[in-house]
Amino acid sequence: MKHFAALFVKFLSYSVILLFVLGFMYEISAGDVVLISLILSAGLYVTGDLYVLPRFGNRAAALTDFPLAFLGIWTLGNYAGDFPRGMGSAGLISAVILSIFEFYYHYYLLRNVIQERERKGGKPKFRLLKKPVYHAEIAEEPLERNREEHNRRPT
User: Does the keyword Membrane apply (predicted)?
Assistant: First the structure.
């Protein structure tokens, strides 16, 4: 149920952002904007939020969402209709705004959705730059005194 709520929040946010950029600035119909929002939010939720975010962290997930959102908006926007202006600039503007939203949305996911799954036996969070862990080796050194004590012991 938490995944459905998180996906619904993402869909609503994508719809509002894309309605502003694509609807008002590029005059794409609201139905096409909702369809683009639905496809993008579902696709990016699976790839960026459920796969990349738990394994690589927030920055990597936000950086992954940017090119995927750009390509998705550019591709789906070209199918939505014939435009006097190119969809490249619309995709770029939308992808920048969506990536900023995604950066903060990932904090919500990490607190409310992803952490619970990891605690229940999900895959551990993988970080690219782990701190090195050093262990000290503890052993007796063969000092002269220890060698003499060892030789005196009855066998």
Answer: yes
Q: Which two tokens stand for residue 49?
A: 């939020």
The residue type found at 34 is V
- φ/ψ region of 81 (left if φ > 0, alpha if ψ in -120 to 50, else beta) reads left
Output phi, psi for 122, to 5 deg. Answer: -75, -175
Amino acid at 50: L
Mark 72-85 as b/e (b = at least 16 C-beta within 10 Å).
bbbebbeebeeeee
pLDDT in tens, 5-25: 999 999 999 999 999 998 888
47-73 residue pLDDT tens:
988 888 888 888 899 899 999 999 999
